Amino acid sequence: MKKIGLFAIALPFILTACGGGNSGSGDGDSQPPPPPSLSIQGPTDVTQGQSVALIALSEGELASISWRQNAGPSVDMQTSQSQVLAFEIPEAGNYVFEVQLQSQSGQQLNAQYSFSAQQASTPSANLRLDHVVAEGAKVSLRADYTGPQQVTAITWQRVSGPAVTTSHNQDGGPQHLLFYDAPRVTADTLMQWQATLTLDDGSQVSDNAYVLVKNLDINSEGFFPKYASRIVTSEVHPYRADSPYAAALKDCVYNNRLASACSFARLPLLGTKQPNPSIDDVLDRLLVSHRWMGDNFKRFLEQSETAPDILKLLAATTAIVITYDTRPSFYWTATGAIYLDAANLWLTPTQRDVLNDQPDYRTDFGKDLAFTMPWRYVKNQQSFLVSYPAALRQTRAFRDMEAQLTWLLYHELAHANDYFAWHRWAGLRESDNPLSFSNANAPSSRHVSQQYALQSEAMRSLAQVSFSGQAATATQKAYLPMDIEQFFVPDVATDYYSYTSEREDFALAFQHFMMALRLGAEADVGILASLNNPQALVSWGQRNRHNSDAIRPRVKAVVESIFPELDATTIQLQLPGPQLMRRNESWWDNLVLEDAPQRSREVGENKITQPMNGPNLWHPPGLSADN
Q1: Which H or E run contains 280?
Q2: Domain housing 90
């Protein structure tokens, strides 16, 4: 178990004092605010292999913070721009760290902390990951053990901090995940948790983790607290500090005070300045919670074969936000930005550790229905997307990160280009903003949905149950897979999620076409019984439904509205045709469909696996231009 000293070292000193000053009325009675203070709380008894935390204690929201290591074996510092520096001890030795911070008033402080780590004699438990959260935000902690024994049980204890209501993973195994909402506080508050793991030989190991709850200025009527029902992290920063849009990114796209849309004069659509954005143009619009997220996104733009498409599509956005607490990913006309769940970008286990493991809030939606409609991408008769369990501490291959991120970007950027199509950029006024413009102008998807309307009201209503949380009626609960087949198959939707809204229908059509064109990834959709079906037997399923005769014209209309330079008609004739799955065989056994007669061509390179699940997508609530 790691031990930590309370305010173990407190050697702050003010290096410079910029800004500040008297904020009173000039009558001489008002006093300037007291200067900020800084102290570090850190470990006192550490062994090799343990995860530890150094906590920079300084009240209030900070302008910037930066850690560096001055001595000792090199550690992986993925949270070096956070008040809580969390990392794993690689080997025994003497460690020295230094932190520098800048307050919102411009004052700069620094402090140092040192400790010694001993050689480990036995494997340790690791409680990941010590971090900072905003009051009211969602918190997750994960208990790991990499020793030879099996973990049979895990118990959690709140050692210090306010009482909260907790929950855990629901997979039937040991409670390796802890979830709760951070308490509301009147001052920055440190919470300490302990997890005790019981092993199959009867022995126990334990570890502590610390969560610093920040007392922040939160506008309950702001866009994120009110309309998105979420408190967001305050530890976000422009990926490029010298970006000409750095201040606008902080103020206009991701904070708990934002209550009105910024004008295009302050944060213009990227395409109005650079119709064909470069990587540098895009990185100037990037806001992240951790540096590695921007680094990995930059690598994607430099190395992915889909990068030319993505750069062009990003012209329809004002900003890109990548954070540890975005779940699920979304595009929002309130800001004109796309918001990406960083789970799509991690490459190393230590990058994966910083992510919030809270499940998608829609996990239980539709649980009363007797059917499920899984989806996946397939290439060379194998699953295209890979799942990497966190406990295995695996490094993710770039190609697998690319695959996961690409479909998501095609989808979210289809939304952006739906509202801000290329032919509209020249007409945008600087006095406009994304919200007012999108409220005053119908998206391209409106025209497509009117020309090629979905017909099944039953599927439309069921989608509100599965994806929007409406309660299922008795009739809906009674629907069997054969009923869903009758509703879905004759219609012209590519997926079940298409029925959520005309915008999602539009984005899914574009996503499937582009994934097939650029990566040779073929889209599967199936209908399965959700009850008494442990083998995941398929009642009905189809590959490349988006390229069937009935659906091809509407997909063509979507693609031409976004990328008119593509010859969609010719491309569709060259892409694989639809293939039916074999009934009453497993969803997984239906990966191989080589005997299907409609097959029009083979696809190339191999990829790996994806769990059977729903889309990690979200469309935020609409706002009126008055907000």
Answers
A1: helix 279-283
A2: 1-17+35-121
